[in-house]
Specification:
two-stranded antiparallel ribbon; alpha/beta; Glucose Oxidase, domain 1; 267 residues
Length: 267
């Protein structure tokens, strides 16, 4: 783990993104990232990549239009949504578990009105092309998403493969799915529960947050463990993509150990 210190301001910068590129994990049912060197140093003295990708790969940001017809696209979201103070909440969760409003309320330090909220369950350590990472990960409940909406969050980020529980998405027995055909059976075998009863609403957390105009970041990683239970200032740098529903994003946290700037000290 590393912290980079800016020599001019003394701000400490912490990476919150996974590396992106060839071979990154991709959602079941979606194509892998395809890359090749269109121009090479050996041939032209220049390097330029050609890429074919689904935008929902690696650490990525979702705009409201992803789930909300006529919602804001990436280019229409106000820049201040991507920058601001907030908190990293440590809410450890196991396989198939749910992040509830009670979990958010109990987490320390408390979420302030208008915060950027980063929820860390520990699943960023499982980031991989695996059934466990995509199928067994926890997700936000309906009441948790509404709790965050009521807090008027600027942005919500998670270290899991997506905001919702996988059984509430097309990975399970919902529209367009299941793209993980054995998921419902494995869930019932492990929990004894009926996925249609427990997760009967499709993308309920996604729709609540994006419907309130709150951008979401999925698959947070990097050195986020350095900031568990701390406040920081966050900046995300998505593309200015007209009609764009999502794109890979660089996500960074800043702290000010000196306390001289209007940025949390990280203590």
């Amino acid at each position: 783990m590393t912290v980079v210190t800016d020599s001019y301001t003394g701000l400490q910068l912490v990476e919150l993104s996974h590396n992106w590129g060839h071979g990154v994990p991709s959602y079941p049912g979606q194509a892998d990232v395809k890359m090749f060197r269109a121009v090479k140093h050996s041939q032209h003295g220049v390097l330029a990549w050609k890429i074919n990708t689904v935008m929902h790969t690696g650490t990525h940001l979702n705009a409201p239009i992803h789930m909300i017809q006529r919602g804001a696209d990436l280019a229409a979201i106000s820049e201040d949504r991507y920058f601001g103070n907030g908190v990293v909440l440590s809410i450890p969760k196991g396989s198939y578990e749910v992040i509830t409003a009670a979990d958010l309320e109990a987490a320390k330090p408390g979420v302030k009105q208008g915060d950027i909220v980063v929820i860390v369950t520990g699943w960023h350590h499982k980031y991989s092309e695996s059934f466990e990472y995509y199928g067994e990960s926890p997700g936000l409940s309906k009441d948790a998403a509404q709790w965050l909406v009521d807090k008027e969050c600027k942005m919500v980020a998670v270290d899991t493969q997506q905001i919702d529980h996988p059984l509430a998405t097309s990975l399970g027995p919902h529209r367009g799915g299941p793209t993980m055909r054995r998921l419902a059976g494995e869930y019932t075998k492990a929990t004894g529960k009926d996925p249609k009863k427990e997760h009967g609403e499709w993308n309920v957390a996604h729709k609540a947050l994006l419907g309130a105009g709150i951008p979401t970041i999925e698959q947070v990683g990097g050195d986020v463990d350095l900031l568990l239970g701390k406040r920081a200032t966050f900046v995300a740098t998505p593309w200015k993509f007209q009609y764009g529903d999502a794109c890979p994003v660089r996500f960074v946290a800043m702290t000010d150990p000196s306390g001289n700037l209007r940025i949390p000290s990280g203590k």
